Amino acid sequence: GGTGSGMGTLLISKVREEYPDRIMETFSVIPSPKVSDTVVEPYNAVLSFHQLVENADECFLLDNEALYDICFRTLKLTTPTYGDLNHLVSAAMSGVTTCLRFPGQLNCDLRKIAVNLIPFPRLHFFMTGFAPLTSRGSQQ
C-alpha cells in the first residue's frame, strides 16, 4: 500500500475483477511499533485484511518485528535498515516462487499449493520460513 492510501487493496480488487479465474498470491508485511515510522500503520494493516480475505487466494505474512530481530540477533547487524529488511523479504519471496520459475520434478503451480495448504477458502494466510539466513553484504 504505502501510507494507507488504499492503493494496494484497490489494485487487488481490480485485478480480481479482471481475472476472476486466476490465483492471486500476496506477500504482506505486518507492521510493528519497533520498526514503525508511521502511527497509523497498524490501522492500515487491519483495514486491508478484509480485502485480502475476500480477493486474494494465498497470503504470505511477514512480521516486520521478526525481520528486524533476525537482522539484529541472527545476522548481527547493529542498525538494520529497510534495505536489510527488504533483503530478507526478497529472499522469502524468491524461495516461495522458486517452483514457478525453475523446472523440477517436485514443482507445482499456485493452484496445487492452494489445494494442498488451504483447508477452508477463507483460511489462506501462510507464514514462511527459510534457511540459511544471510545479510546483503555477505553474499558473493
UniProtKB/TrEMBL annotation:
Keyword Metal-binding: yes
GO cellular component term of the entry, any: microtubule
A GO term, aspect molecular function: structural constituent of cytoskeleton
Superkingdom of origin: Eukaryota
Pfam family, one: Tubulin
Similarity annotation: Belongs to the tubulin family.
Protein name: Tubulin beta chain
